Amino acid sequence: MGLTADLCARIAQLGYADIPEPALAAARRLVLDGLAVGVAGVSEEDAIPTMARVMKELGGNPVATAIGCGFRTDPVRAAAINGAAMHVLDFEPMWSPATHALSVTLPVALALAEARGLEGREVLAALVKGLEIQGWLREASGQYTPDVLQFHPPGLVGPMGAVVVASHLLKLDPLRMANAFGIAGSRAGSLFGNVGTMTKSAHCGQAAAMGLESALLAEAGFTGDTETFESPLGYANSFYRGTFKPQEMMGYGTGAWRVASPSYAIKMFPSQFGTHFAITAGLELHKRVADIGSIKAITLTGPVMPYVNRPFPETGLSGKFSLQYTMASGLLDGHVGIHTFTEEKLHRPEMQSLLGKITLEMDKSIPARFETMHVRLRIELNDGTALETRCDGPRGMWGQPPISEADHLVKVRDCLGTTLAAEAVEKTIALGSRIDTLTPAEVAEMMELVK
Predict the structure, then answer these.
(1) pTM above 0.85, yes or no
(2) Which domains does the chain have, with CATH numbers?
(3) What is the DSSP annotation of 305-344?
(4) To bridge 165 with a disulfide, which of 108, 118, 160, 355 should be the other Cys (CB 3.0-4.6 Å)?
């Protein structure tokens, strides 16, 4: 068998009973995280209501919930809206190698479960399988750092993860799955130039929608390149020219479950993950600076990551991708949350003054990977005093103590509570936390709560 055929055979044979409990437990937390940040994303950012209005006007068979939007639509459009909603705050977990694996998979699983009356056990199994393929693809890509990444990763691996989720729930045989991968290869891609705009959230929404559409087409007999992972003109060689190591993706289904190890980093700040290092450093020195007005100069040193070098972001959304603004927010306010990234917070005179004192030094000797990078922060006060700190990783990332269940539920409740009443928040948590025991009716109830 060829590489794609072998991979599809492995994927197709795996069911819920084949997934070990540590992987299932890790995935259960993700269901709650995804639902929560999706609800908050709709209520706190203009992008998703705008997208939802357009999608609603286009119509669609109303069988799948648009989270937080108050209506149902067809599964493909629901996946597009919900994938964007789960990503727009940049608050969903980060993965190693870096991508946004949850917001391209969970929306597909939920949309198909609603549309076809599926139980939560299959939702969780499909989610794990879709997360896994993205991890193995990112590992095989050979593209880990900003200097070699040509596309925003979820736009490349996301459609393939969505294909696997949909293939499991649609019960596609290996050949139809291979066709779905081939179809999805022609629907992949996302531009870094759109980071800091509404379009970045759509990278995940479109990946979810296009992977689902590809699987639905394959289910109906539509064909694509069935050797897309090894073909000279297929997905792998087109998007990862010269760097892709195909055999490294064949760890899939061999007993190592990436959702459990190296697992994921739950985000406690709603911004690009590299900025969490700067935020953590800013929060640390916030406790040591009695008067912000006493600051003369600030030097922030980190790896070479040009796309998060934004000295004066123009919008709150763009501020999510600014090392300078995120660090300054932690230093000035002692807190970074959803409302940090508003126009009001950004354009405060004291914030603009602080931004003008920051020098960002990008040091080539510091690795530009989340797993191994660090940042250093030095503040010089008017009296000549110097304060310094270093962050080797924010709370909850790989190698750091994990985010506790209690702390995670604080985040979940805060996000759900942006729209839902207290009773609905607790019902959503109760259902989502035991997703793999839910009946089809209970899955529908959970989605009605977040609608």
Answers:
(1) yes
(2) 3-267+402-449 (1.10.4100.10), 275-391 (3.30.1330.120)
(3) -GGG--SS-SSHHHHTT-HHHHHHHHHHHS---GGGGSHH
(4) 108
